[in-house]
Amino acid sequence: MNLEEKFLAVGDIHGCSKQLLEILEIAKNYPNHKLIFLGDYIDRGPDSDGVLSILKNLDSICLLGNHEEMLIDLVEELDEDEKFLFLREHEISLENYEWLKTLPLIFESTHYIFTHAGLNPNKPLKKQTSQDYLWTNYRGSYTHLTSKIVVQGHLHVSEVYREGNHCIIDTNCGLGGYLSGLVLPEMQIIKSKTIGKSYKVF
After folding, report:
1. Nearest in space to 43 (alpha carbons), one of 70, 63, 81, 75
2. Least buried of 15, 61, 117, 130, by fewest C-beta within 10 Å?
3. Strand 149-156 and strand 166-170: pairing?
């Protein structure tokens, strides 16, 4: 497998910059693996803007999560003054907010599909929508849709979960769990040294 097919996917961070830095330190052991983050960078933890600033300056792939979509949907309904006040109240810089608006919903390679919430198991790949990529709640295998490995966050699991060609790696960081990563193609699991506790919810 060529270098393009080496990834280190990281689950939902939820404002836990300390745990993100711990994962990034471990990731130095995998210099040939492309980092890919699966969304839900904000909310719950103490440092959403810090997480965004770290991610924005990495050479990585960052996907949109449903928490980012909810933030964007809310803020875009506000006028400019209200937008500024809302973001300041929730401690997110305008620069980082604008960066969030540029993030894609899906990344697909020869052997993998990455989205925040997986795929809708009842639709062919070409019929999937943003709602499917961000809000699906499905834990079964996707072998009926694709031979590729599908990697997602979004669904809370106590440990990295795999069924068939489906991997779920949101291990509750920001809700008292660890931040987890999945090294591909090795299928090796890494996790932060400390848990990320919940502090606030937008």
Report:
1. 70
2. 130
3. parallel
Q: What is the pLDDT of residues 128-160, one digit of tens each?
A: 999 999 999 999 999 999 999 999 999 999 999
Domain span at 181: 3-114+175-196
> How many separate domains does the chain show?
1
Q: Six-digit token pair at 182?
A: 């999945």
Convert the pLDDT of each residue in 81-140 to its tens digit.
999 999 999 999 999 999 999 999 999 999 999 999 999 999 999 999 999 999 999 999
DSSP string, 5-56: G-EEEE---TT-HHHHHHHHHHHTT-TTSEEEE-S--SSBSS-HHHHHHHHH
In this structure, is residue 13 part of a structural domain?
yes
Report the CATH number that the domain containing residue 48 is assigned in CATH. 3.60.21.10
Please give the model's pTM, rounded to 2 decimal places.
0.95
From the list 20, 72, 63, the residue with the least C-alpha distance to 190 is 20
| Alpha carbons 7 and 69: distance in angstroms, whole number | 25
167 domain-assigned: no
